[in-house]
Design goal:
TIM Barrel, eight-stranded mixed beta sheet
Length: 193
């Protein structure tokens, strides 16, 4: 769908410069998705992998974040292999709703209720980031916190349109459950992509 150089705005790697590859296509369909234009892959012309890698290599950071849409709709083995050949670090942001492909330095798993993650990604995810739209989403978050590895970083992130209401709730929850940290969409506060 698009590729751009910016700062990571969420989660564990927030603030790190990275080249983002946003893959078009998503069958998860979260009603609060802030990139709904990514859902239909037919709206976005195909781009040669070599062109995207060349573009990524032109920036000072050697970190590449593959996101979507839902990137695991596609086999990402070739992309990752080519990025690794060029000494790039690979980061994945996924709902985990499809089988894992590619070789990743960091996997951010953000499971969604309407299309739960595949089991194989749970034990290797580096980061669990659960979007909190309603207070009831905490039960979903806790379910997946119990399924990921003990070394997985745990984040609760208020859904942007409801952050005014959900952030105070999340703060109180984390104060009572300090295994969690809060993730805010800092890129939206900074008005960057």
């Amino acid at each position: 769908m698009e590729a751009f150089y910016t700062l990571q705005g969420e989660g564990f790697n927030m603030g790190e410069a990275a080249f983002f590859i946003r893959v078009g296509g998503c069958d998860v369909g979260c009603r609060w998705c802030d990139v709904k234009e990514s859902w239909n892959p037919d709206l976005h012309p195909l781009v040669k992998t070599s062109d995207v890698i060349e573009q990524a290599m032109s920036y000072p950071s050697k970190s590449v974040v593959v996101t979507g849409g839902e990137p695991l709709l596609y086999n990402l083995d070739f992309l990752c292999r080519q990025l690794k050949i060029n000494s790039m670090k690979t980061y994945l942001e996924t709902s985990g709703a499809h089988p894992l492909t590619g070789t990743w330095d960091w996997i951010c798993l953000s499971p969604k209720i309407n299309h739960p993650p595949e089991e194989n990604i749970l034990t290797i995810a580096n980061e669990l980031k659960v979007i909190i739209f309603n207070e009831s989403d905490i039960a979903w978050a806790e379910k997946y916190a119990s399924l990921v590895s003990p070394s997985c970083k745990l984040y609760l992130q208020p859904e942007w349109s409801r952050s005014k209401f959900m952030t105070p709730f999340i703060i109180q929850y984390i104060m009572q459950n300090p295994k969690w940290k809060i993730s805010l969409q800092a890129h939206k506060f900074m008005n960057i992509p």
